[in-house]
Structures
1.
Amino acid sequence: MSFQQGLSGLNAASKNLETIGNNVANANTVGFKTSQTQFADVFANSLTGASGSQVGIGTKVAGIVQQFTQGNITASNNPLDVAINGGGFFRMSNNGAITYTRNGQFQLDNMGYIVNNSGSRLTGYAANAAGVLSTGAPTEINIRTDDLPPKTTENVNVQVNLDSRKPQLDPANFDVTDATTYTNSSSVSVYDSLGNEHVLQLYYVNTTTPGRWEVFGSMDGITLPPGVPMPPAATLGHIQFDPDGKIIEGSTSLAMQGDALTPINLNNLAAALEAATGKPVENNADPAFDLRLDFTNSTQFGSAFGVNKLNQDGYTAGRLSGFNIGADGVITGRYTNGEAATLGQVVLANFTNPNGLQPLGNNEWAESSVSGPALVGPPNSAGLGVLQSNAVEDSNVDLTAELVNMITAQRVYQANAQTIKTQDQVLQTLVNLR
């Protein structure tokens, strides 16, 4: 009798409906991957070998397989929401227990770790205070909230056009307070070892030697080099142009360095400021303030003076104002001083057989012997996807397809129930034979 076939069909159809119901229930679950029930037929072993007349004894569930296809990516307002576009899983740590997820809904906990809703911590490569990534074993990512230390200015890049039509002047007459003793000037803010800002003013004097310009300087209004008492103004150096108005190699940089005669000595500068203003001025920073002035690509053309580029590499201290996660997983912090620093890098993990992962719930999976070991690396490498911040990956459940599958599963259930009913009627007929 085929009660066995009908019963196995009912069980299989019921399991299929459960799978479909689970898919439908998680249609709005971020990072959820739809499942598919797969079946296999069942035959009894035959003592006489293969037989063309052998009838199967029903069906069974061969497995419930998740479909790791890409879900749609939807923008969000949370900067810590991250979507994976492509292969891979986020690697999470919960007290050392490693799990994997496609759900990128993260937030910061009270200790500065990036965590998901179940409290597991996102892992990746840590960065030291200099922003250098340690690409060894992944660790739990912690966002440093300490201040970014100041950086002393070492290089000042200046790109100017000095007007060749300007009258020639005698550099010996230079006076920072008399604009008629220099041709043009420019200024830039520089920073000492404590992040204190100083205004460096550069003065350009067109000399009687063709193409030669003497460069003088002042800092915070004090002529360089500062001294007690103030010495006569001394040139920081000169820049030389060829007949075509292009700067000659070898005169593109002026190094304001030295020992006792260092043009910028902050102790001497503080003393000179105190003498000039009559107010106490102290310098607590490193007094040795060495600068390199780079005039590469400066010109001397017959056109108006202009500053095309003027920047420096120092900055004051800054506090973390926010951070973002790039497509390559690098976490970049933004600071109140306008600087940026690398805080870490998110890593992804992939598997030879993702279908072998063990589902744990909470949108997480665990590695198993069937999945193979985790292959960990930065995003956009070795087949891993790229990251998109301010976005989440939607569930890949196709509701239309699931509803159609539900109708089909319902009809299969009804058909198997009908075979049991028919067999019952046949059995009843046999029992009623007299």
Note: Helices lie at 3-25, 266-277, 399-431.
2.
Amino acid sequence: MKNLRHVPLAEIEQLMSEWGEPRFRAAQIHDWIWKKHAGAIDEMSNLSKKLRDKLSETYRIPKVSIDHSQYSNDGTVKSRLKLHDDRFIEGVLIPTDKRMTACVSSQVGCSLSCKFCATGYLPRARNLDFDEIVDEVTLLNDQAEQHFNRHLSNIVFMGMGEPLLNYKNVMGAIERITSPEGLGMSPRRITVSTAGVAKMIRQLGDDEVKFKLALSLHAANDKKRDEIMPINESNDLQSLIGALNHFYQKTGNEITFEYILFKNFNDSLKDADELVKIYRQVPADLVNIIEYNAIDQADFVKPEESVTDQFMNYLGTHRVNARLRRSRGKDIDAACGQLANINRAGTA
């Protein structure tokens, strides 16, 4: 059966005409799908039973659901989401005083095998469809309203998977999320994070997207980046620098570098100096220095506070706009790099 949410409005209008239904029925169906988030055709109560039955013979509305949620001591909520084919992804709701951020996934698993990331040790089963990503965001927005009485203020594509390897569906989801028929969110409040797919970063620029871009850098020379991020072997730093500059020239949108500190690997002052040099080649607004969050599959550890302070001070001395990002949701494995569909204590 066909997914009704994959059928364009014009095609639904044509279908209604062929079935002898008035044109406005198509708008009603579209409204049920995207504004009222109907999970079944039978919920469309302003359609006749005859029309609902006829639609149900050919179409369905597969919906994402919350399988379970975990609640961190710091307010972070991690949810395991069940897809129509019984596969799972994870999404995270991160509340702060000023923001309510949804960290969303774009793939079931991941193919990039970054050595520090739990998702990277999972096989990539498939891409998420655009409507599944929209469901994910909608469910996290519902949680924000339920638990915090607030709407989402920001969305970051920093969950499971590489967004730029699911380009069409991520773009389609963002188009729906930012439309008046969706959440009506400003694209300036959306950040897409990539491990570094130079060709698709350039495509973002050519498509003149309106959202922000983050590059997961994590090492500022190719040798070290090759060790922890295999994608660097085919997308080295010079190709990424060129792609990021192209993106900025085409869009003028904010670019952020993400840099996880690993003890005795990328946390020396020499590493900091190499990061400064990369920063000066790209019109980046910010470098997020991130605490490493331990995973069972890797032996990395985070450096001592004194080493982190020295690293941050070096960046500041060299006029790098850097911010130390403290991890949220570590007690429920919801922090950066920890998403792996593992059911821990504290489920609900």
Note: The chain has ten helices and 14 strands.
3.
Amino acid sequence: MNRLKVASLLLFLILLSFALLVGGTMPYFLFYIFLLTFFIPLIHSLITLIGLKGYVRIPSQSLFSGESINIEYQVENKSFFRIPYLEINSNITKNLSGIESPKVTLVLEKKQSFIHKETVLLKRRGYYKLGEIEATIKDVFGFYSFKKRISSNTSLLVYPEIINLSTFKITTSHQTGEALVQNSVFQDKSRISSLREYREGDSVKAIHWKLSAKKDIPIVKDYETRGDTYATIFIDNYAKSFKDDIDRRLEDKAATATLSIVNYCLSQNIEVCLETQNHKSFVKIQGQQKSDLKPFLEALARFRGNGSLVFNSFLMSRIETLKRSSTVIIITPNFDKEIGALGIQLKMKNFNPLFIVITDIDNNKGFVDQIVEEMLNQEGIPIYILNHNTSIKEALEVYDG
């Protein structure tokens, strides 16, 4: 193609020189014919570009990561000329699933339309403002190439996947005036609210052995939920901590782990508070009932590693606002000495700190100071390490503080 353009330019200069130097009907006739050779394809391409219309259709509802959706786009040649070469490139599938769609190349006759449909697996949570395709028109000689974008104004909100946790065991907690020791921060083991048959996922420790033997079926004890139990989750989204986050692995893992813990708290009627940043703004969401889940879903779907304030500074500014004896869950990709010191400080202030460290070992992202980890373990402060491919359910349910 480059050779054709170079040859055309040389021919243009030769014919122009011939017409100017020699003059006469034939030189100018040849020169004008040559110009028309380029002018007519240009006009043809511009007319078909103006007449090219289309739409992009994606679902307008909110969906969860892991679900599938149907997307559809159409291009129509409304002009009276044939489009000899049309190339369609869609970025929708790549944005939603990380997989590039193959380019579509076709000839579009006058008044003809082309419709493309595909099913996309939503691998990424996030907020997607537009679905867009790019159409490229070329003339039959390949002299000209024009691009046109066709987009949809429909936004798509993809929630993180909810991992249903049957237990979430952390360190013991002590309330003033009541020397209560508990393995789970969400239940009072001294107060049984009801008895029921065993269901898959129930803890073996909750089985009422005497009654099970009497009825010859496993019977499980349901415990009362502590009304004075609170959980506050801090997510580190300091921009530098998420620099070069490949495929947003750290972001997605942090969001999914957070949502799973929030969902567990709300299912147990535990008051939970989520705090993080969005650029320079502070984000704070609270809830206690299962019906309070939606604001958490929306915030975590939009969660990005874009915080402007250093996470340690952000945490320090929020400590004094915490409720007494609450569990403080800190989710971060950077577990260093400073963050470890904050854990000790929280425990000294009679809080129950817990750390979840997000890593991507394959790409050497995320940092864990093993000395600090050992020190906090000695202090009885739980630390969970979640690599991007680690099962959240297995990692968070097996710990027995």
Note: The chain has ten helices and 20 strands.
4.
Amino acid sequence: MAEQFSILAVCTGNICRSPAMERLLAHMFAADEDVEVASGGTFAHSGWDMQPGTRERLRAAGADTDGFVAEQTTPRMLREADLILGATREHVRDMLTDAPEAGPRTFTVRHFGRILAHIEEGELPEGSSAERLKALVALADQRRDRAGSLRGEDDVVDPYMLPEDVYDQAFDEICEPLEALAAKLGTPSPPGAGFRA
């Protein structure tokens, strides 16, 4: 059986930012049975669907929005995920309080994107997406210092109950590092000019 790789996207309520990350990543790895993507919230609106502003932008990007249900992150989810992408520094702090052993695999999505600039494509092995992702996460952990410490620009703005332009900003802040990830792995992005509508 092929090696599996799991990605967990995390925000607060699991209804705006982390569903966007989850479904864009799921779209990116749709052809890769060895990559699984899920999401959760540190204070989740458990049982809710994603917010309409998130759904509209995902649909415009070509990603699936069906069947989403918000759920609370658990220490087990954090321990078992191979890559954890939080929306903000606060999410990272909260997750590492619950599962400190997940530290080498935990980043804010925007900091992860900045770290990718310090990894050359040639450093990744040939192989499946799972194998390449595993190597990429190990390199990203080693290269954190090259991208500098976590700072305000590494947070994705929370658009919950805010105007449409804030949803646009949040979606762009999520898409940029995910597009960088797709480029680094040589993985197809959704149709059109990257993820963004």
Note: DSSP finds eight helices and four strands in the chain.
